[in-house]
Structures are given as structure tokens and as C-alpha cells.
Amino acid sequence: MSQPLRTAIAAVVTATLALTLSGCIPTARVSSPPSEPPAGDSTSSSDPTFAEQPSPGPSENLDNVAFGDAVTYADGVNISVSAPAEFVPSEYAAGADQGANVVFQLTITNGSDENLNPVTYSRVASGGTEASAIFDSGNSMGDIGLGPTTVILPGGTITWLEAYSLTDPSSIVFQISPSFDYQDAVFTNQQ
């Protein structure tokens, strides 16, 4: 892996961790607003300070979903992760350091009315062990390891590949969201 690519990856991971740990990235909660304000509530829905802000979160609680299924958020954005397939790293691959190597096809479809700036950060575990991301720019399948960076227009779709080295391909948990403002979806083959 080239030094500029290593530097770019390290910068993205460092920035994401810093924002997450400092609390700058909001965590998503799924809750239903009360149908009526509580008794004695002096806030008014016409007061912009207390107006409820729309959230792109899911239309209902997110359950674990099977690989190949899609999670659709309230604003129409959806994300899916394919079932894992065997992956053969090229000689230039980095991160293929566990017993099995698999690849996933990820897809985000922007069903909303606004541009979507995808900011994905996948977390994968297998058999109780964190998986290692594989970065492979010389693979015959194409460049492996980096998510999308270009805005997705309304109605648009983006697809990319991510590969992981893991301990047990029959026990995988894959956690991801389409961008910072969305609750994580959890895909798994553990049902």
C-alpha cells in the first residue's frame, strides 16, 4: 500500500474517532414523540427554539437484518450488505491476517429528496473477534477497502466492495450507516 493511501486512511480513521469520542457526532435514538405535550408544558410548536427537528432515522426500530436485506430509513435512504463471498487477496493486499477472507457488496440508494453525502464507517466482528479490514488496490475485482466519497443525488445509487479477514465466516456481524446522521444498521448471518 502506498504511503499517501496509508496517510489518507489514517487521517479518516483518526478524524472519525476524534469526532465520535468528543461527542460531535450525534447518536441516533429511535423513539416516538408523544402524541400530546405533557401537562404544564409551556413550549409551543410555533416556537422555533423548541420545534421538533425532522430526523432521517429509521421509520421503526432497527432489528438485526440478514445479509442481502435492506434497511430503509424514514427519509427513503436505504442501505444493504450482500452475503459474504470468499475473497482472494492480491499480492498487494494489506489486512488479510486471519483465518478466512470474505468480500461484501454494499449499496446505498438515496430515496430522499435531497443530496446524500455518504460517510460510511463499517465495523465487522466474527466469532467474538474484531475482523481486519482488507485494503487491496491491485485486486482483479477492483479497488477494495474504501467506501464512497461522492454525493449521491436523489434517486441515485452507489455500490462498492469491502473485504474483511475474520475468524468464523458462519458468525458475522456487520455494522454500518449511510452517513453520520443515521442510526447504524446491523447485518448478520446469525439468525
What do you see in this structure?
The chain is an alpha+beta fold and 191 residues long. The chain has one helix at residues 3-22, and strands at 65-66, 70-72, 78-81, 85-86, 100-109, 123-126, 129-130, 132-134, 157-166, 172-176, 185-188. Strand 10 (172-176) and strand 11 (185-188) form a beta hairpin. The chain starts with a helix and ends with a strand. The protein has one helix and eleven strands. Strands 2, 3, 4, 5, 8 and 9 form a six-stranded antiparallel sheet that branches. A five-stranded mixed sheet has the order 1-11-10-6-7, with no helix packed on it. The longest helix has 20 residues, at 3-22. It has a domain at 61-188: Immunoglobulin-like, CATH 2.60.40.
- Strand proportion, as a percent range, falls in 25-35%
Largest sheet: 6 strands, antiparallel
Q: CATH fold name of the domain at 61-188, please?
A: Immunoglobulin-like
Distance between the termini: 37 Å
Structural class: alpha+beta
CATH class of the domain at 61-188: Mainly Beta
Q: What is the overall silhouette? A: globular
The CATH architecture term of the domain at 61-188 is Sandwich
- Low-confidence blocks of residues: 10-55
Whole-angstrom Rg: 19 Å
Instruction: Give me the number of helical elements.
Output: 1
Helix content: 10-25%
Number of strands: 11
Reading the helices and strands in chain order gives: HEEEEEEEEEEE
Q: Can you give the mean pLDDT?
A: 78
Quaternary state of the chains: single chain
